[in-house]
Write a structure and sequence with these properties.
Length: about 450
């Protein structure tokens, strides 16, 4: 008698386990929500009372590193007395220790557990940097009236994975090119037009504020960098088109051969999606006096102390060059647009098109003398003016981002509440009966 054993490879097993966890999470929140509603109604509560429990503004962050994106907005809303519920998928998110009276933070679980709760959320507005709503595990909740997206950098939206922002209702953007690209994608895919608002970038504003403060402090103390060794930051994106995937160990060897201090800061997603590669590179190139691996939650300090950035198509290019006003070298990794929304437009992405105005382009042909290229790029002042031009294109309303976003969110909330009240009154109106106009303000 032969015993037939069913073999499931690790990848499939992991996927099935994730599906099971997701289904269990969904079931838990469905029954929990139903029980709460039944208990509330049987205790004498009305549906209108239950609706009043809806969160005015929920913020979802899938990683702790995005607190720096949301904090300026939360601070502005807190100052205006507007309540926010901040939902994070990171158990050690700094927001959990925030001291803003009107910002309630809660850890809602990681991965599918977080999405299970979001899928049954009751809120007037949900604000997030996370792409992919209604594409994979994260579904639009019927009890959330409006989904608003903000990017976490002033780069283009077309380097999101496909359909990343299709099912948001609105986007708050920092550059006209983002609006143009979003409209093109809507036209190509025959999508309803979103509300696209140019508001600026609170994230960039905050970095610029900190940079000016640090510089003023250093000037007051008459501090100068006396080190003769330049610091080179390698901060690539993740995926098959990223520097570490394309060039790997050979590129790190080339950097070390310059004799400069090298900081390698992989994209956080690399440690999840490219874990085997990261483990291999970190083992092959352990930290030393010349080399450091950086995984800080906030990238401000590492950007501030670096003299030059080497990257590919990562949005960190714009943080570095536009806030810190320093040169970049962008490696030509033969960007493959097929996994991204950029594939639909059939034109070069805005980010890649402006690289020649920010610094030099690194190719297979000129990689031989990396040290000379680094020196030339740092010393060449011709990039300064063009960097300022790109800054104006990518970063509208500099210094006003948090104010403008708070203005929008509060106004939109009042509009949605007014619409909801009007709809409720219309449903409750009976033939022959004239409803008395409410004096309540939305």
């Amino acid at each position: 008698m032969h015993i037939v054993r069913l073999y499931i490879d690790p990848g499939t097993g992991s996927m099935l386990f994730a599906i099971l966890i997701g289904l269990l999470g969904v079931a838990r929140f469905v029954f929990k929500g139903l029980w709460v509603k039944l208990r509330f109604l049987f205790s004498g509560g009305s549906k209108s009372d239950l609706d009043s429990k809806t969160i005015p503004l929920a913020i979802f962050s899938d990683d702790k590193r995005y607190w720096s994106v949301f904090e300026p907005i939360c601070r502005e809303l807190d100052q205006r007395g507007f309540d926010v519920v901040y939902m994070t998928a990171s158990e050690d998110d700094p927001v959990l220790k925030n001291e803003y009276p009107h910002v309630k933070a809660e850890f809602i679980g990681a991965g599918n557990k977080a999405f299970a709760k979001l899928n049954f959320l009751s809120a007037t507005i949900l604000l997030s940097t996370t792409p992919g709503v209604d594409v994979y595990q994260w579904k639009r909740s019927k009890d959330v009236k409006y989904y608003v997206h903000i990017p976490h950098s002033p780069a283009e939206l077309t380097t999101y994975r496909m359909f990343g922002t299709d099912y948001y209702d609105a986007m708050l953007l920092s550059g006209q090119f983002q609006i143009d690209d979003a409209r093109k994608l809507e036209e190509i895919r025959d999508l309803p037009a979103k509300e696209l608002v140019l508001t600026g970038s609170p994230f960039m504003d905050e970095k610029a504020r900190k940079f000016k403060e640090r510089k003023a402090e250093a000037d007051a103390k008459k501090e100068q960098n006396t080190s003769s060794t330049r610091t080179v930051l390698l901060a690539p994106s993740w995926g098959t088109s990223g520097i570490l995937s394309r060039y790997g160990a050979e590129f790190i060897k080339d950097l070390l051969a310059t004799g400069y201090h090298i900081i390698v800061r992989p994209h956080p997603q690399s440690f999840t999606s490219e874990k085997e590669l990261m483990d291999k590179l970190m083992a092959q190139f352990p930290e030393s006096d010349q080399l450091e691996w950086n995984r800080d939650t906030d990238n401000f300090d590492v950007l501030n102390r670096s003299d030059i950035l080497i990257s590919d198509f990562s949005g960190v290019i714009f943080d570095f060059s536009l806030v810190f006003d320093k040169p970049v070298i962008c490696a030509d990794t033969e960007f493959d647009p097929s996994p991204y929304d950029a594939w639909w437009l059939k034109t070069p992405t805005w980010g890649l098109s402006v690289i020649p105005r920010l610094g030099k382009k690194l190719t297979k042909e000129n990689r031989g003398d990396l040290k000379t290229m680094i020196d030339a790029c740092i010393e060449d002042q011709s990039f300064t003016e063009s960097r300022h031009q790109v800054r104006d294109e990518a970063w509208a309303y500099q210094g006003e981002g948090a104010t403008r976003m708070a203005d929008y969110l509060i106004k939109k909330y009042n509009e949605l509440k007014a619409e909801s009240k009007k709809t409720e009154n219309s449903k409750s109106e009976k033939p022959g009966k004239v409803l008395k106009e409410s004096s309540d303000t939305p």
